[in-house]
Each structure stands twice: as C-alpha cells, then as structure tokens.
Amino acid sequence: xxxLAEEACETAARSPHVIGICTxxxxxxxxxxxxxxxYTEQMPRPKKPRYCRRFGGFxxxxxxxxxxxxxxxxxxxxxxxxAIALCDFEGLHQEQAxxxxxxxxxxxxxLLQQGRRQVADAIIHGKALAIQExxxxxxxxxxxxxxxxxxxxxxxxxxx
Length: 160
Known about the structure:
Blueprint: H1 4-14, E1 18-24, E2 30-38, E3 50-53, E4 60-61, E5 73-77, H2 78-89, H3 94-101, H4 105-124, E6 128-132, E7 137-140
Parallel strand pairs: 3-7, 5-6
Antiparallel strand pairs: 1-2, 4-6
Helix pairs in contact: 2-3, 2-4, 3-4
C-alpha cells in the first residue's frame, strides 16, 4: 500500500501540469515539497474586452400569438448582435467591424457565424430570442471611437 506522499509523487510524475517536487530522503522515504498542485484542466485565458454600442431596443423577441411560457428561448450575446449590426445592417467589412469592436477579424467572423445561427434558429423554429450582456462586453458611449486619436489618412481642417 502506497503512502499519501508516494501516491502524490507517482501522480505528479504522470501529469504534465504539476507544481511541486518529489524527492527521496536518505532512509528511502518520499518527501513532497509543498504545495503540490496537479492541474487536470488548464484555465482559458480571459476574453479580450469587446466594445459595443448600447442596445436601445427590446431585449426579448418572440413569435406573436405564442405565450412565452410555451416558447423555447435562444440567447444571443450583445457582441454577436453588434457584429451582425455592423456587418449585415451597416454594410461594414469584417475588418472595419473588428476595428470598431477592438477585436480581431477572426473574432468578428466567429461572432457573425454564431449570431446568425442563433437568429436563424429562432426564426425558423419559432423560438424566442433573448439578448444577453456579458462581462467581457463593454458599452461604448454614443459617438465615440476607440479614443486613439484621429485615423491615419483622415483630412484635417486647418486654419489658413
């Protein structure tokens, strides 16, 4: 029967995500320098903030004539809705939408794909659509850009 220290050392030797060291003393006993932490799952990195405009409309849409209690609800994130609004409604390219939201173009592409799928699911299957805010979504004040000065190549009116 293995001691608790021997068990910890054997488990640590098999795991690629270990903090701590197992050693053997002069008498053959296993010693564990504390703390020994074994991570089976790595934490994902935090999501980068996504900047969206305030959504002034309703936060829930449902099919007419069906009570909400009898309707399944599909949730769409405010960032997904913002990507759809920028690309599909305002006609911006994904690169321009990414710049406006301060994320990568790949992120905008994923947001569009997820958002469009959820909107289509709600419409095709007669489900309610709820708009949800998230911790990583920040509301940008109206009429404000990213606050990084004027854009390159923009013409400036200079006094003569």
